[in-house]
Specification:
Blueprint: H1 37-40, E1 62-69, H2 76-95, E2 103-110, H3 115-127, E3 133-138, H4 140-153, E4 157-161, E5 177-178, H5 184-197, E6 212-217, H6 220-235, E7 242-247, H7 252-261, E8 266-270, H8 273-285, E9 292-294, E10 315-319, H9 326-340, H10 346-352, H11 356-378, H12 384-391, E11 396-397, E12 403-404, E13 416-427, E14 430-444, H13 445-450
Parallel strand pairs: 1-2, 1-3, 3-4, 4-5, 6-7, 6-8, 8-9, 9-10
Antiparallel strand pairs: 10-13, 11-12, 13-14
Helix pairs in contact: 2-11, 3-4, 5-6, 7-8, 11-12
Length: 451
């Protein structure tokens, strides 16, 4: 990876003075008749100082990290809990003494989910604030606008809050881009495989000649998911029966009507939270009641308007975390304890205990800190090369999930997911209770197709 002068050198180890012989000899003067004499004298040859390097953003007492995120506008519902949970975990680490005596300081800016703004603020973090790493690099627009820049300068980026295919690298040792969330290509393939193969249609599989409707947003997220859907459809011989329509703000109703007119028996929604919610409303308005499959990014009740939900239009999402397993339950307790000690209002904490986006921020912070803990265990100073190498040492446990493995230069995030279904429980005199409930365990793609 090219590095462009962002590293600041701090001399950690002073040069130890060399010990000379007790009987110093007179220096030998080189003459034309005896040029080799200079090689025989006892004057010590000077050596280069031995230095260890901190990377930028590191002092003896502090490690500075940062991100940009959408904490205003429509995507604030994602960005605010995401960042709050990152800060909650760092607070917990700092309260316990930090990592190797260093406190973690988090610098964050609001990019409003705008790629150009996010790119400018990312450069500010790297070049003016001089942070050590980007943690929870947020959102498709900003991530897609900065992936090349991050690789060019070499600053570690841990956890991208998106799964665009630009984050996928088959074998790329020492690549500073370290995604955790599943890449959208994988996400699309898994949701399509489940739509094709799960016995969720009145206890039966989707008929082989069924029309499959796909609505996607023509952006990096939607296009990346669509690529996975199409790849799986081709692999399973389902592509001939697919009807694919691009949608954008103001066209959701038109796209839905086209799928309804085509007789789609299942709909795959390749998009993130805002268009997903609007498309569900359009399906309700059109009285289109068929099963819906969508991305893990929509596996939170805030992405669904429960007043527009129908049991005849079940909603299924992928999920890369599992809070229902024995391990997941134990990890949830750790997560709740972390949020409970955060500097947040009590009602906010309560809301975050079951918020998927806060959970994601917590995971981002945990994975980043794992690399620092490995450096401490190895007795290494925190610099970029040491940090990335430590992250590549072996699999990293994901709270409420499986593992992510960067060894050998693997950069494709998590490649296994469970299946959730949205549910609404009505109660007299009380607000409906919404939840996503697990209906399938975490599986890799081959297991889903094999089943």
């Amino acid at each position: 990876m090219k590095k462009t002068g962002l590293m600041k050198v701090v001399v950690l180890l002073a040069v130890i003075a060399m010990v000379f012989a007790s009987c110093a000899k007179e220096p030998v003067v080189e003459t034309p008749d005896n040029p080799a004499e200079t090689q025989a004298n006892d004057t010590p040859v000077s050596e280069e100082p031995v230095v260890e390097e901190y990377s930028q953003g590191v002092t003896d007492t502090t490690i500075y990290v940062g991100n940009t995120a959408a904490v205003s506008g429509a995507l604030a519902v994602v960005g605010v809990p995401f960042n709050d949970a990152i800060m909650a975990y760092f607070k917990m680490i700092n309260d316990a003494g930090g990592i190797d005596g260093r406190m973690i300081e988090f610098i964050t800016y609001d990019d409003g989910f705008d790629g150009a703004t996010g790119a400018a603020l990312t450069e500010k973090l790297a070049e003016e604030d001089e942070v050590f790493a980007l943690v929870g690099h947020f959102g498709t627009p900003t991530v897609s606008a900065t992936v090349d820049y991050i690789q060019e300068i070499g600053i570690p980026m841990v956890y991208a809050a998106t799964g665009i295919n630009a984050l996928y690298f088959e074998e790329s040792p020492m690549n500073p881009v370290m995604a955790v969330q599943p890449i959208y290509m994988t996400d699309g393939r898994i949701m399509a495989a489940r739509a094709f193969n799960e016995e969720l249609f009145g206890g039966a599989m989707l008929p082989s000649d069924a029309v499959i409707g796909v609505l996607y947003t023509n952006d990096d997220a939607g296009s990346s998911i669509l690529a996975g859907v199409q790849a799986e459809a081709a692999a399973e011989g389902r592509d001939a029966n697919m009807v694919v329509e691009a949608v954008a703000e103001g066209t959701y109703a038109t796209g839905v009507q086209k799928l309804k007119d085509a007789g789609a028996q299942v709909v795959i929604l390749a998009m993130n939270q805002v268009p997903f919610k609007e498309t569900l409303v359009a399906m309700d308005d059109a009285q289109m009641e068929v099963p819906v499959f969508t991305s893990y990014v929509n596996a939170d009740v805030t992405a669904v308007d429960h007043t527009k939900y129908s049991e005849n239009r079940p909603i299924y999402t992928n999920a890369w975390v599992d809070v229902y397993s024995e391990k997941g339950q134990a990890d949830v307790q750790d997560y709740v304890a972390c949020i409970a000690q955060a500097d947040l209002a009590e009602d906010v904490k309560t809301a975050y205990y079951t918020n998927s986006f806060a959970t994601a921020g917590y995971i981002a912070a945990v994975v980043f800190v794992e690399g620092l803990k490995r450096l401490e265990a190895n007795g290494q100073v925190p610099n970029w090369d040491n940090y990335i190498a430590a992250m590549e040492e072996g699999p990293i446990d994901i709270p409420m999930g499986g593992t992510v493995d960067y060894s050998g230069g693997k950069r494709w995030g998590i490649d296994s997911m469970s299946l959730l279904q949205y549910t609404v429980t009505e109660a007299d005199g009380a607000e409906p209770t919404e939840a996503f409930v697990k209906v399938r365990e975490i599986e890799v793609l081959s297991e889903i197709a094999g089943n």
